[in-house]
Amino acid sequence: MDYQFKDIEKKWQQFWADNHTFKAENKTNKPKYYVLDMFPYPSGAGLHVGHPLGYIASDIFARYKRLKGFNVLHPMGYDSFGLPAEQYAIQTGQHPSVTTEDNIATYRRQLDQIGFSFDWSREVRTSNAGYYKWTQWIFMQLFNSWYNKEADKAISIAELVAHFESKGSTGINAVCDEEILSFTADEWKAFTEQEQQAELLKYRLTYLRESTVNWCAALGTVLANDEVKDGFSERGGYPVEQKKMMQWSMRITAYAQRLLQGLDTIDWPEPLKEMQRNWIGKSVGASVRFPIASPKSSPKERTSEESAATSLSFGEGRGEANYIEVFTTRVDTIFGVTFVVLAPEHELVASLTTPEQKTAVEEYIAKTKKKSELDRMADTKTVSGAFTGSYVLNPLNGEKIQLWIADYVLAGYGTGAVMAVPSGDQRDYLFAKHFDLPIVPIIDIQNIETEADPTKEGTYINSDFMNGLDYKAGTAAVIAKLEEVGAGKAKVNFRMRDAIFGRQRYWGEPVPVYFKDGLPYLIEESELPLILPEIDKYLPTETGEPPLARAAGWKYTSLSSGEGRGEATYEYELSTMPGWAGSSWYWYRYMDAQNDAEFASEEAIEYWKAVDLYIGGSEHATGHLLYSRFWNKFLKDIGKTPEEEPFKKLINQGMIQGRSNFVYRLIDEEGKGTNTFVSHGLIKEHNTSPIHVDVNIVENDVLNLNKFKEWRPDFADAEFILENGKYVCGVEIEKMSKRYYNVVNPDDLAQRYGADTLRMYEMFLGPLEQSKPWNTNGIEGVFKFLRKFWRLFHDADWNFTVSSAEPNKAELKSLHKIIQKVEQDIERFSFNTSVSSFMIAVNELTDLKCNKRAILHNMVIILEPYAPHICEELWVMLGEQAGTLSYAAYPTFNPAYLVEDEFSYPISFNGKMKTNVSLSLSLSNDEIEAAIRSHADVLKYLDGKAPKKVIVVKGRIVNIVV
RNA sequence: GCUCAGAUGGUGGAACUGGUAGACACGCAGGACUUAAAAUCCUGUUCCCGUAAACGGAGUGCGGGUUCGAUUCCCGCUCUGAGUACCA
After folding, report:
1. How far apart are CA A13 and CA A870, in angstroms?
2. Which residues pair with A145 in a beta bridge?
3. Residue A921 pLDDT more than 90?
4. CB of A271 under 7 A from strand B?
5. CB A881: neighbour CB atoms within 10 A?
6. Rounded to whole angstroms, how far apart are CA atoms A712 and A874?
7. How confident is the model at residue A402, as a pLDDT?
8. Interval A360-384: pLDDT, tens
């Protein structure tokens, strides 16, 4: 029979499902290997052709590893909480779980038809209570933990309480809020419960704080920074404003240093690591305090050194600070400081503005406020600012320095204040020039005539005790001096902020927290999961509360002691968890997906440990991949997981772009569109306008005229001006999108060519990591290849005919060449080249008319990861037992079959290849040179001239220099 | 602006540590089979000159360099894509 992919694929997909062929065991003697895909959000649009790219690659790898004798964990699931389902619910009133359910069914059908070897018994859905129970549980652990800088890890909050009870607040070095109290053990014990809880909240790894959030009125929700693009929501493009709101936050900054260091230990693409490094944004420098020239009051009592510094610089509006604190990475330039600049939002601005300057400052602040985020960003050239009228003192020489405000200083970074060194910083330079402030050179070789010179070369001048020192010595000296006079110290600053952990939405995990006297308390672990309640409408309440406020009777009845069960009721937290909650730990759930007692059993985690290979898009670089690393480190700190990094190796598949096709409508003399369409090659001769045409009715850029007429009613009687009898379409590469009619759905291709062809073609398209436009131009070639492979097993009349004769040298050579090549290719994730190699091998075997079992048996195994259905079918036809192919032994490469005794040396003259000479590989270099020098062809090219030099690389090349 | 990635025939791409540039596939052209078409098979296909051919020259975004030899390494530039946005 001819190659009937439809029957074959259906049959084997059913077989795999019925026999649980890809079920992974949690314990075997085999070595383990964990291959993970980024699980999809099941959107209404279904999978498009770009989705499976990474899934196919990981499936090939998973199947390959199985053949190589590994116990492979290769699961799939759904990130099923999210905005689109909720938006749809708002519009239609349909419960998001219903649409989610439908969408998942579509995804599952689409995934199944591609023949993935997922272990579906481990499927997870983040919106299932059985799953989010553990997301809530992890939240509770975070709530019950604080970060101890001494131990450099998260520690139970109970230990902190024990310390407070015995030693008070001294000796605690924690990552915590800026405003913490300083107290003795007795004072702590004297605190009310409320006071104690309020204090503890400042230490917890997840905590409430009033943050300025990106509030999107149209979506009725708060957005994460990475969900906001240029002041508009990434999804929907609605305007976003800044709003203050009590928000759950995650103290990810506690892990900044570890997140940064960990990058050096994992095998990830360099650009991705770079993105995370930039996001974390470590800068090493110093904090320096500039005393205010005429302090208005005496220093406030300090709570602790650490907190005083920051609290005073931000001041919380008290306006009683006696110095300005700045952060700088060039503390060595401190003698070049000629003014200090505050962000307009800085808390001390009001109190430090003198009456004379009040109008100017207020006008400037008003002007800044009016500017949108977008304007402020785009307008980096214009210099603007206002003098406060106040002065600060240089802490090292007492010089009086003007204090300005300007919007080039950002409130959200460092301390919201900078020491301006116009000789070394271009922004400060422009500012100084514009407002006519002094510019003092501080390095001997500095050239500051037209712009700032940020050099670190040379030695210092105009710098007091630093004069004559170089950068390294100078920096050390300054820091020592600042510490000595108590005006500053070395400091590391991170750009990364704590992550907001909440959204004012319905379709997410409820936060397992209730409020008592305005403070959050966890519910009992035994009360998990806290089920998402039913509500009547998926919108905020009239009073602006999140949708969960609509849930009737949704109140917490405390089980805890002293309350009297069933008596006291409390309000639950009304916001839900953000999109990244469920995806920040899901790889552990796959290890033990049905476990009711734990998020995964200790044994399962100990066995699978971490993900060995993770494939997904780079768009998750600073979101999912950073949060996951954070939660993973936390889970390790509390002893639940063994590995510091969750994803050992990561590959980014490239984005698949759309390839749009155009037809060209002829425009008549009046400028109106006609019903005549001009082929692309002829448009220069006509007046035309381009129209997007559905790529599914175009093949190799040639329009199917009949399908075009059927496509839209108004084209039913279209006429065409053809070239060479064809209508050729124009082409452009754009985003894959419905409105460009360039979306290619894998279903159509799977129907037309089969899953095996689709799988191989997606790989054949090019290197996995490269972005590329989708086009189906080459898919025929892959289909023909599979048919040719099928034909190796059949005679001219499609009868299955395989010989048991011993293979000859040429056949064995072909086989072992492909064994070696495919192994090398898979190990370096070069799937496109292995497809080519398969084609070469099958071409060779076809030429050799090879139908020998000994060869074909092995070919079936090697090809199985790429085209599993056809291979399963042939495997059974070869007399093997159904279902055993996936776990067959991978053929062993034997280099002996590739050994050659002759090599056809390319002979080049001055590096230009001219001819070939075949010589025995047993010859020494000298013998080769002698043979070449006297060879007739070579002599012909030399034309009587003597070669200056002959370079012989054995088994590679001979180069003759003339 | 900064950071990263990339640029090879008509097209997708190959060339793995510097060693025959263009594998494999698409498309195109010609041929076989066929009443014809589809399917299939065969041949050719980087460009230029010349030509049935042999042969000659150029050639991996551009300009330099290192080397016996560079798509590969180094320096400078152009363009494309992605990320980032006054980060002190």
Report:
1. 11
2. A156
3. no
4. yes
5. 8
6. 44
7. 93
8. 999 988 887 776 555 555 566 678 8
Annotated binding residues of A for ATP: 738
Counting Cβ atoms within 10 Å, is residue A124 exposed (0-12), middle (13-18) or buried (19+)?
A: buried
A438 touches strand B (CB under 7 A): no
Distance CA A86, CA A508 (A): 10
Q: Apex CA A362: angle with CA A360 and CA A364, to 5°? A: 70
Check residues 909 to 938 of chain A and report those whose beta carbon is under 7 Å from nucleic acid strand B.
910-914, 916
Highest mean pLDDT among A206-220, A380-394, A588-602, A661-675: A588-602
Helix (H, G, I), strand (E, B) or coil at A913: strand
Binding site as annotated, residues of A: 738
A94 C-beta less than 7 Å away from strand B: no
How many Å does it take to go from CA A243 to C1' B56? 75
A208 CB-to-strand B distance under 7 Å: no
CB-CB neighbours of A149 under 10 Å: 13
A621: phi then psi, degrees, rounded to nearest 5: -55, -50
Complete domains list, chain A, with CATH: 21-138+581-652 (3.40.50.620), 282-494 (3.90.740.10), 656-748 (no CATH), 778-897 (1.10.730.10), 900-961 (3.10.20.590)
8 Å CB contact between A889 and A69:
yes
> Angle A629-A635-A636 (CA atoms, 0-180°, nearest 5)?
90
d(CA A190, CA A749): 73
Strand B nucleotides in reach of protein CB atoms, 7 A cut-off: 3-5, 11-16, 19-21, 23-29, 40-41, 56, 68-70, 81-88
Question: Nucleic chain B: which protein residues 666-705 of A have CB below 7 A from it?
Answer: 700, 702
The answer to whether the CB of A487 falls within 8 A of the CB of A396 is yes
Contact yes or no for A83/A233 (Cβ under 8 A): no
CA distance A648 to A613: 6
What is the distance between the alpha carbons of residues A658 and A180, in angstroms, rounded to a whole number?
A: 54
Q: What is the mean pLDDT of the segment spanning A33-61? A: 91
User: Is the CB of residue A953 inside 7 Å of nucleic acid strand B?
Assistant: yes
Residue A830: nearest nucleotide (C-alpha to C1'): B16
Q: Is residue A753 over pLDDT 90?
A: yes
Tokens at residue A457, please? Answer: 């070369």
3-state secondary structure of A812: helix
- DSSP 8-state symbol, A723: B
Lowest mean pLDDT among A33-37, A124-128, A233-237, A921-925: A233-237
Of the segments A641-650, A690-699, A902-911, which one has the largest average pLDDT value?
A: A641-650
Confidence of residue A319 (pLDDT cuts 50, 70, 90): very low
pLDDT digits over A808-853, tens only?
999 999 999 999 999 999 999 999 999 999 999 999 999 999 999 9
Q: Buried b / exposed e across A23-52, counting CB within 10 Å, b at 16+?
A: ebebeeeeebbbbbbbbbbbbeebbbbbbb
pLDDT over 90 percentage in chain A: 52
As a rounded value in angstroms, the CA-to-C1' distance for A53 and B75 is 39
A898 CB inside 7 Å of strand B = no
Rounded Cα–Cα distance for residues A62 and A119 (Å)? 11
- 8-state DSSP, A226: G
